[in-house]
Write a structure and sequence with these properties.
alpha+beta; Aminopeptidase; 8-stranded mixed beta sheet; 7 helices; globular
Amino acid sequence: MTRIETDRLVLRRFKLSDLNDFYDYAKNPNVGPNAGWDFHKSKKESLLLLKNFIESNEVWALELKENSKVIGSIGLHKDRKRENKSACMMGYVLGEDYWGKGLATEAAKAIIQYAFERMDASILSVYHYSFNERSKGVIMKCGFKFEGILRFSTVTQNGSVYDDCCYSMTREEYKNTYKEAISQ
């Protein structure tokens, strides 16, 4: 897993020492449900997921440079909704105290660049639930194209069924949108 730096963030592998920061945002009932998971009710619950993140090569911790606090995560995964082997899917979550500051967009743009330039993705997708307007804003700022709505496509841990609003960006669209980043 490659360490990535942006102006305000370090995207890096999670460590066990991130448990307190991870639990701090994962316990918030306004955070997890927007991303498809229930808020964490104990540090033990957070520790189990944190260990999975550490073992995987798909989820970066979002560390704020100014104080080295982990404030969220961003993942780059195989897109389970596409058979194309070079299709990737991005997902992210950010602690509520950091919403509205452009940090999710900053992290997402770094992962978009990584997906197309390092992972050789042919297409990158991202999804949000219809009620998650904040996530929609991040997606639009990053230049994704709206594909449509997959109705009744996600069943959450608590049994709720949600529509997925689907967006994507092809390699060609990336090259056209992010020309400046490529030439640097």
